[in-house]
Amino acid sequence: MSQISPVIAPSILSADFAKLGDEVRAVLDAGADWIHFDVMDNHYVPNLTVGPLVCEAIRPHALKNGKPAMIDVHLMVEPVDRIVPDFAKAGANLISFHPEASTHVHRTLGLIKDNGCQAGLVLNPATPIQQLDHTLDQIDLVLLMSVNPGFGGQSFIPATLQKISQVRKVLDQYRETSGRSIRLEVDGGIKVDNIAAIAKAGADTFVAGSAIFGKLNYRDVIEAMRQEIAK
Ligand code: DX5
Ligand code: ZN
Fold it and tell me: Atom 1 of ligand 1 has which residue's CA nearest to it?
């Protein structure tokens, strides 16, 4: 378990897009912490979703106790840099990208920070964790993919648990030397019945799309997830 408070970040990929503002409000009212916003370009990943216009449209609906909730933008696009300022202007708080999709990872991280957002690096199931070397000072979050990116509703890849523990160690060591905490987010196939193991391995931030939006009562699922995390 990590030392920072757990965050549940529902992915709107599985929400009803015909009433997205309502869905965003409903899931935050039901106890979610952040909104996870999956951006796919039919190039880096074989699917096409939403862009800055939709981020801007949901921004006024993404409120928690009257204050802006975090919009956690997960970019599955290539190239990355062109679109970063657009998402910052559209109200994103945190922007994560896949290093394979950026020619100059250090430059892209700097660009995200220069645009006033927190920055995250996303590791695919087969991307080695050494990819984090030389980036820790620039990042606020590591996002570990527990499915291959591109689609909601896939099954959690069990080998991710070991990878979470390995990254947890790296981040704990970094906190000891720097005094700075970096979040460890996991994305893909997270359900009530596996979230305890994911938390135990060391994740503190949990993306769940189909597990939440696929159910009638969002509050029940989110509460059940929190209970499992606390186990
Ligand atoms: C996959 C996306 C995920 C996905 C999560 O490329 O990054 O955020 O939508 O959906 P579930 O929870 O259904 O796996
Ligand atoms: Zn995602």
Answer: 149
The residue segments making up the domain with residue 162 are 7-230
Distance between CA atoms of residues 171 and 173, nearest Å: 5
Residue 39 C-alpha to ligand 2 middle, in angstroms? 8
Q: Which ligand is nearest to the CA of 211?
A: 1
Residue 42 lies in a domain: yes
Is 34 inside a domain boundary?
yes
Domain count, the chain: 1
Written as one letter, the residue type at 184 is L
Active site residue 172: no
Task: Point out the ligand nearest to the CA of residue 148.
Answer: 1
Give catalytic status of residue 187 as yes or no.
yes
DSSP state of 155: P
Nearest CA to ligand 1 atom 4: 152
Q: What is the pTM for the complete model shown?
A: 0.98
130-166 confidence digits (pLDDT tens): 999 999 999 999 999 999 999 999 999 999 999 999 9
